[in-house]
Amino acid sequence: MNELTCAEARDMASDLIHHELSVSDQAAVHAHMAGCPTCPGLYRALVALHDELRRVDKVGLVPRPLLSESWQMRRWWPDAAILPG
After folding, report:
1. Are the CB atoms for 33 and 13 separated by under 8 Å?
2. How far apart are the first and last CA of the chain?
3. CA–CA separation, 9 vs 26, rounded Å?
4. DSSP letter (8 states) at residue 27
């Protein structure tokens, strides 16, 4: 895969967290984040959100329908038009 744009990397971030990317796509996302000033912070925020949702689910703080809807929101990232790339 060629170098990714920020928009492409953001589109793949949720799949990366859920281990749904091929090895080559994983490498492309990691390579993009290694050279991007913006995407690593956004990725860390998405990972933190993912981890927090898993934590509160374990203690039963999130109603099941809300948790299900949040996992379906695969494109959490901000609008690509306002970010470089």
Report:
1. no
2. 17
3. 10
4. H
> For every one of its 85 residues, what pLDDT tens digit does the chain have, with 9 covering 90 and above?
569 999 999 889 888 988 889 999 999 999 999 999 999 998 888 888 888 887 776 766 655 555 454 444 444 444 443 444 3
Token pair of 39, please? 């995407």
Distance between CA atoms of 61 and 55, rounded to whole angstroms?
Answer: 9
Amino acid at 17: I
Count of other CB atoms within 10 angstroms of residue 4: 20
Whether this model's pTM surpasses 0.90: no
Cα–Cα separations (whole angstroms), residue 35 to 10, 32, 50: 14, 6, 24
Rounded CA-CA distance 63/45 in Å is: 22
Q: Region of 19 please: left (phi>0), alpha (psi -120 to 50) or beta.
A: left
